[in-house]
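Case study: Formyl-CoA transferase/CoA:oxalate CoA-transferase.
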Amino acid sequence: MTQPETASPTGPLAGLKVLDFSRILSGPYASMVLADFGAEVIKVEPIGTGDETRNFPPFQEGLSHYYMALNRSKKSIALDLKSLEGVKIARELARQSDIVLENFRPGVMERLGLGYETLKEDNERLIYCSITGFGQNSPHGNKPAFDIVAQALSGVMSVNREPGQAPNKLGIPLGDMAGSIFSLFGLLAALHERNATGKGRHVEVAMLDSLIAMQGYLSQIYFVTGKSPQPVGTQHPSIVPYGSFPTADGHVIVACLTERFWHNFARCLDLEHLISDPRFALYQQRLDNRDQLEPLIHARMKQETTAYWLESLEKFDVPSAPILSIGEALDQPHAIERGLIETVSHPQVGDIRLVRGPVRFDGMAPSASRAPSLLGADSAEILADVLGYRAEEIARLAKAAVVSLNDSSSR
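Here is what the predicted structure looks like once written out:
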């Protein structure tokens, strides 16, 4: 079963060709963003199993939620990369590509005959991106790396908790996504350079490096004080008041990053005298005396409901928010008005909802997405249209299990 016809991709990367060997999350997120920007992405998957995430529950009519979330607007070709002919096809595709993306452990692509040095001989303009857990020369070497491993080694888990509680991972897979996000920075920089030089680059990104790079001021606290930041839950290590505050029936987020917002908040609480209190007048004083200030705020806020405080905080121009569930966040008016959710038609599943990319150009959201492909659904089209294979040759390759033309039984 083939995809419904869709309009040609539009966007600043229209015409760019990406060959994507990556799987699971670190890598597929990056190639999906490239597709959002208009690039043509061909995803290479193993015959029979495909990307491992095709088998991750829960499912919508047999299609994995995980695969749907990370593989819109890509074409799927199922190849046996352990066969000489499968590698030959992959090299032919790389020869016509602008970008190759992979996230295997170091050395895997070289053993397959698809490493950067090999593919560069065929295409000097090729930009080749490798996302690994730890990089080529890490003491961690070839250890398997997943999101939670990167989070643990980055220090992030040590502060992602309430004081006295067990370390906790972030609710979103930022270890994986950080690798994808920084790979996009590197790829776009390499594309800009190639416009001037005509030559590609090998872009290398490690998940652990990327997550450490995202620590921001937390790293600098350690460099400045010599002490690792301690967990403060939803609070801020150096800004007070900031975080989740209890109400009569729930919690409200308040973030007073400037003195003006602190003054507004104190007035909102009917505690204006705290503004001139020498214990709380300035940033450092509030930080030093947070154990005295926060109980005063808690006691006042517990006297009114969440709805009351949200209305009052908005009236006094205090940065604030309710704490929404994932479903509430997706259904809120902001997501609807901004067009963040789209519905696409899938040939097997029917209508599916997806979250759109957040980047807009000239005020326009990304063009309509193409539904995630079934495994190998585009193999014949790619072989014929991209590489010029004749029908009988495609049939021979399918019979020899070098390529799968459309395994509709696979998710």
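For the exam, be able to explain this: The mean pLDDT is 94.
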